[in-house]
Structure formats: structure tokens, C-alpha cells
Amino acid sequence: MSSQPRKKWYHVQWYADTDTSEEKKLILKLDLLFVPFAVLAYWVKYIDQANLNNAYVSGLKEDLGFFGNELVQLQTFYIVGAVLGQIPFMFLFTYVPMYWLIPFMDVAWGVFTLLQYRTASFAEAAAYRFFVGWFEAAFFPAIHYVFGSWYWGDEIARRGGMFYVGLSLGTLTAGLIQAGASARLDGVHGLAGWRWMYIICAIITIPFGVLGYFVIPGTPEQPNRRVLQQADIDLSRERLAKAGHVSHGKVRFETLKKVLLGPHFWTIIATDVLFWNAGIHTSAGTFLLWIKSLGRYSNSHVNELGTIAPALGIFYTLFVCFSSDLLIGPAWAITLASSWNALGLVILVVWNVPEPAKWFAFSTMYASVALSSVFHGWVNTQLRTSPAERAFTLVLINTISQPTTAWTPLLVFPTVEAPKYTKGFAFCLACAVLLIASTHILRAYVRRKE
Questions:
Q1: N or C: which end of the chain has fewer CB within 10 A?
Q2: Half-sphere exposure of 293 (CA within 13 A, CB side)
Q3: How far apart are the first and last CA of the chain?
Q4: What string of DSSP letters covers 353-411?
Q5: 387: containing domain
Q6: H helix or E strand, kind and range, residue 324
Q7: How far, in Å, CA of 308 to CA of 295, rounded?
Q8: Residue 269 burial by Cβ neighbours in a 10 Å radius (0-12, 13-18, 19+)
Q9: Is residue 78 part of a domain?
């Protein structure tokens, strides 16, 4: 069911034609409460996730003697924590109010981000990365669960797109923080610049976690009454009902059985696995390691130049997500993003090209993650009739798909092969092409089902 007919590009508008003035006020209230927080919270999440790569090229490698594959191994410890952490959290979505759960996760990973400043060995670094991953595990599906609890299907992607800008902003900001720490704080109070970066990141992270308690609206079933009145909740339920959305339901064993035995779930899984793996070159530090290999930039300048790709990712994300909601729909928006990613990967696979071509190729890499909110918003809509299935599926697809990125980088992106990752770039290219095919198979399945 579509909540409103798709319009020509020159008819683009923020609200549906059927929205009353009261509904428009409610949507605006939700937008102002939750969307800015989601962007900021995802920003700090990706500062804390991406800062390892920046620390590695800014002295951590030399200080701790990480001259082998320790970088990719630490990235794997993060992923293992992120995967295992999703298992308990996915059962909590329909039981614990989201305005409690999300802030708790945020503050907890902020604490472990802080602890990384004192790292003295590989084992200690691995433990901290594991717990950062554990508490960040359910953040992304949690935010999309809240989006799907208040918005129609064709309203989610553009909100999710603005939220997902936080990924690029976080990666970009981590580079700028490390550049500043390397240039101005290296040696202050006996701490290296990369250690100061972890302290700064934690100082940014923890207050935003506390803020979430006061601004996250929760869900219609478990609303945050500090920011919403009963009239808001009742109106939202009425509006969601018009689009076939259901607001009540708990995750139980029967939910698990129904989801796992259905072909719909496994079609989504196949698409999600390809999505995760088509973009692992963004988290493997490939761009930063290539810039450093040029041998003509200081540590701070390497980190500054490394912000080019995530900065372009902000544009990619907004363009793809708004196009999905307002113009071409989710399947074609995913196709657009994945095609742009594939173009850059073709150049990186060839490798023996002029240097400007490599700068261009690396600048396309964040198109691979720009489609994430489109895909998860699409899943939200497909499962709008069952909050329990929606909560379970949003987490479980990550729980199944993300573990594949725990071992694939070890095989195709070993640090010792930097910066020419022939196997890695070819692998990502294959996943990007297959992702396009899988997306249209899913599109055909959903159309036939509905």
C-alpha cells in the first residue's frame, strides 16, 4: 500500500495532500524533536567508530608496534561486538521504551570510547573496540524502528537520509578531530595526539546520550510523555492506521518462527548482505592508507584530505534518499547509488590509472552507504502491519548480514596489502553489481505479494 501517489519532480512537497493542518503540525513537531537528534547521535556514533582508522595513521601504529594486520583485526573485533550486541537488544525494542534504550546505548559506548585513550596493548584495544561495537550494535535499527513507528512508508527515507548524513559527518569529523589533535595536542600532559582524540570524542558523545532521554518521542505504544501530549499520540495512531500501519505488538517466539520460515525475510537478507559487503572499502581505511602511501603529506594533512570522501557522502545520501521518497522509489534509488559506487570500484580494480582518476574513484565510495536509509525505510514499509515482525526483522537482518563483514575484510582487505587492494576492490564491485540485481528481485516479489 502506498500512502500517497508518487508525483512528478515539479510537484515535490513535504506533506501528503491528505494531511490536515493538525497532522502537519504533528509531523513538524516529530521532525524537529527526533530528526536533529538522530543526525547528531549518528554523527557521534561514527566519530567513535571511524576514529580507529584516523588514530592508526596518526601514530597509534608506531606507538603500539602494530606493523602487521592489527588494524583489520581490531575492525573485526568491533564488528563481532556489534553483531553479538544485537541479539539481546532486538528483544528489547517492544519492551523497553526507546527513549530509555537509545540513550543508554549512547552513553555506554561513549564510556568505552573514552577508555581507548589509555590503550597499551593489542588485547586491551581489542576489548575496548568489542564493547564499543556491542553498545553501538542496535542503534541504527533502533532509530529506524522509531521512524517506522511515526511516519508513513514514503516519508521515512528522506528522514532516514538526513539521519544517515551523521555517518559521513562522523567520519569526516573524526578526521578533523585527529588532524587538530595531532597538530595541537600531541605531547600535552604526556599524551600522544591520537590518545587525545579518544578523550575529545567521549566528551562529545556522552552529553548527546543524555539529551536523547529528553527528545526521543519513543513509539505510539510507549511514548515519551515529556515531549508528546495524548492528543499527539491519538492523532498519530489515526494517521498511521490510514496507511495500514499497526502500532501494537510484542516480539515473541512465534514472531521468530513466522519471520524465519517466510521467503520474504530471506529475500531481504540476500539484499542486505550484498549491501553490507559492497561498502566495506569505506570502513577498511582504504582512502586514508592510499593518501598516506603517497608520502607527501603530514599526519594532520592526511586526515584532512581523508574527509573529502565522507563530505561527498553527505550529498550522495541526501540526494539518494530524497529521490527515493519523492521521485523514483526505493528500488531505483538503490540502483542509482550502487551504480555510482560500482563506477569508482571499476577504476580501483584497474588501479594503473592516472592519480586524478584514483581521487575520483575514492570520492565515489560513500555512495555505497547512501542507500542504507532507503533500504531500511523500505523494509519498515513492507512490514508495517506487524510491529513485532518489523522490530525483529530490522535487527535480525543486521545480525545476520553484518557478521559477513567480520571475516570478508580479513580475506580481501589485509592491511599488509595496502593501498592496492586488488581482491578487496574486486569483491566490493561484484557485490555492488549483484546488489542491483537482488534489489529488483525483491521489488518484483513485494509487488506480487501486495
A1: C
A2: 15
A3: 7
A4: S-HHHHHHHHHTTTHHHHTHHHHHHHHHHHTTT-HHHHHHHHHHHHHHHTTHHHHHHHH
A5: 19-449
A6: none
A7: 18
A8: middle
A9: yes
How far is the C-alpha of 50 from the C-alpha of 76, rounded, in Å? 13
Distance of alpha carbon 380 from alpha carbon 245, whole angstroms: 10
Asked, for residue 9, whether it belongs to a domain, the answer is: no
Cell of 271: 539484499
- pLDDT tens digits along 251-307: 566 666 766 777 788 888 899 999 999 999 988 889 988 998 998 888 778 878 888
Residue 14 lies in a domain: no
Q: Compute the mean pLDDT over every residue in the chain, rounded to the nearest whole number.
A: 84
Total count of domains within the chain? 1
Q: Is residue 410 part of a domain?
A: yes
Cell of 283: 570502513
Task: Report the distance separating Cα 249 and Cα 186, nearest Å.
Answer: 53
Using DSSP's 3-state secondary structure scheme, residue 223 falls into strand
Contact yes or no for 413/333 (Cβ under 8 A): no
C-alpha cell at 288: 586514508
Cell numbers linked to 400: 545476520
Query: Residue 355 corresponds to which cell in the numbers above?
Result: 592519480
DSSP assignment of 64-132, as one string? HT--SSHHHHHHHHHHHHHHHHHHHHHHHTTTS-HHHHHHHHHHHHHHHHHHGGG--SHHHHHHHHHHH
**Whole-number Å distance between alpha carbons of 73 and 61:** 13
**Per-residue confidence (pLDDT) for residue 367, from 0 to 100:** 93
Rounded CA separation 340/332 (Å): 12
CATH value at residue 130:
1.20.1250.20
Nearest in space to 87 (alpha carbons), one of 384, 373, 400: 400
